[in-house]
Each structure stands twice: as C-alpha cells, then as structure tokens.
Amino acid sequence: MGVEFLKGHGTENDFVLLPDPDGLLDLTESRVRALCDRQRGLGADGVLRVVRPDFGPWFMDYRNADGSIAEMCGNGVRVFARYLVEAGLVPLGEFAVGTRAGQRGITAHEDGTVTADMGPARVTGTSSARVGGVEFAGVAVNVGNPHLACLTETPVASLDLRDQPAHDPAVFPQGVNVEFVNVLGDGALRMRVHERGVGETRSCGTGTVATVAAWLHSTGQRTGKATVDVLGGQVTVVVEEESSTLTGPAVLLARGELDQAWWDAL
Ligand SMILES: N[C@@H](CCC[C@H](N)C(=O)O)C(=O)O
Fold it and tell me: What is its EC number (predicted)?
C-alpha cells in the first residue's frame, strides 16, 4: 500500500494533500520538493499534511514547494478544510483548523466555497521591492506570515515576476511574499504575487488579505471589504480591526497513491 494523496487548489494555488492522522509520515524537504516538482512529481505550490493532534482541531502542516515551512497559507487552509468535510472528518459548516499561526475558524459552505478567519492583518511599516530595475513602494503586512504589498499604477500584467523581487532583508529577515496591486475601483483590486519559497503563483490567500489591508491603509481606512482578482480567479476579503476573512473556491480534483518505492527512494 503506497502513500495516500489528494490534489486540490484554491483559485489555482495548488497543493498536494497527505492525510497523516497519526503523524507517521517522514515528510522531508526532499520529499516535498519532489512532490511539488511539475516534471518529476505531481506538481504543486505546496504540501498540506493533514494531522490529528492528541488535543485540539485537525492541524495543517504546510510546506512551500522548496521544502521550507511557512506559518500560514490562506488558500491552503481552505482546501484543507474542504478535504476534512469531503472525508467526513468534520461536518459541513463551522469548525476550527490548527495552523502554525494559531487556530483558524472555518465556514465550509454548501456551494463548495470556504471562508477562513485569517486572524489580524497587521500593518507593520513600509518598505520597497525592485523588479526589472524599477522600485515599487510597499506596505509591510503580517498575516501570520510576512508580506509586502505594493500598490502601483503600472499594470501588474506587465511585470516579469520570474525572479524573486529584491527586498530589504533588514525589514524581512525571514524572507517575504511580495504582492503587486492595481486598484480597479472602490473595493475592487487586481494582484499578482511572488511567494517566498515558491515563486510566482496564480493566487495567494494571505497575500490577498495583505493586499486589502494595504489598500485600506493607503486610503486612511482600517476596516473594509474588497474583491481581489488573481490569475486563478477571484476571492473576497474582509478586514476588521482584530480579524479578517478570506472567501473563495476550494477544489479537490484527484486522489490516489504514491508509489511506495518512489517515496522510499527520496
Ligand atoms: N499560498 C499561500 C501562502 C503560502 C506561504 C508563503 N509562501 C510563505 O512562505 O509565507 C496562501 O494562500 O496564503
């Protein structure tokens, strides 16, 4: 019997899920890298290991495609929640999921969308990122993980995000996810993102929350609601004083078994 897996995505931010209720899998960095590799593995932006702790809710052990560990993943937690419901491990509706950034409240809706409580989106200062020799001013936002959201009039579609945007390591000693944002109208934003530990992805849930917090900050507001268009679809974000929510689709599309010999050789 090989290692069970599922594949899923939230607005095309895609993940391999590894159900591991008893915490028996040895999820090494090289295994994560191989799973996420789009040529020699299944291909994904990250891995979600599904663990049942002795106490508390199901825990999302999130890894970036390069094998690094991140505190939080907004699209990942929505796909994780969809899996828990589909597997009959929690009822449709409201429940909690544990993450490294703390416990997150989830509402799994009947139409397949999931709302995740993302905790506070804290604006911590300003900084800048450089792409193609051009400097973009940004707002640093912590959503459990670090972000630099750069509002710009340059159409985000025109940016080359193949390389990591240069940023200030003194401000972001643990690295940073960098968002580039166009304001389309009141409460309507467009974002592209370069994720720490992954590269450009088609969506980033925590990045969309950081984007809305930065947009509100730029207009002198602390709370509000916006839709965020990403390459993989659209999500809705609500930012409040001490919390925020992210709503969007969460899709499971495949399940199967990894070849045990392939896994053992990694
Ligand atoms: N795609 C995720 C964020 C994943 C973690 C990020 N790359 C980091 O290292 O902080 C999301 O949907 O939030």
Answer: 5.1.1.7
Binding residues for substrate: 13, 64, 74-75, 145, 177, 195-196, 205-206
Q: Indicate which residue of 204, 216, 252, 258 is catalytic.
A: 204
Domains of the chain with CATH codes = 3-117+250-265 (3.10.310.10), 122-242 (3.10.310.10)
Using the atom order of ligand 1, give the atom closest to the CA of residue 207: 13
pLDDT tens-digit readout, 14-62 = 999 999 999 999 999 999 999 999 999 999 999 999 999 999 999 999 9
Cα distances (angstroms) measured from residue 138 to each of 49, 70, 152? 33, 21, 9
Atom of ligand 1 nearest to the CA of 45: 1
pLDDT above 70 as % of the chain: 100
Q: Indicate the annotated binding residues.
A: 13, 64, 74-75, 145, 177, 195-196, 205-206
Q: Is 36 a catalytic residue?
A: no
Out of 18, 60, 73, 216, the active site residue is 73
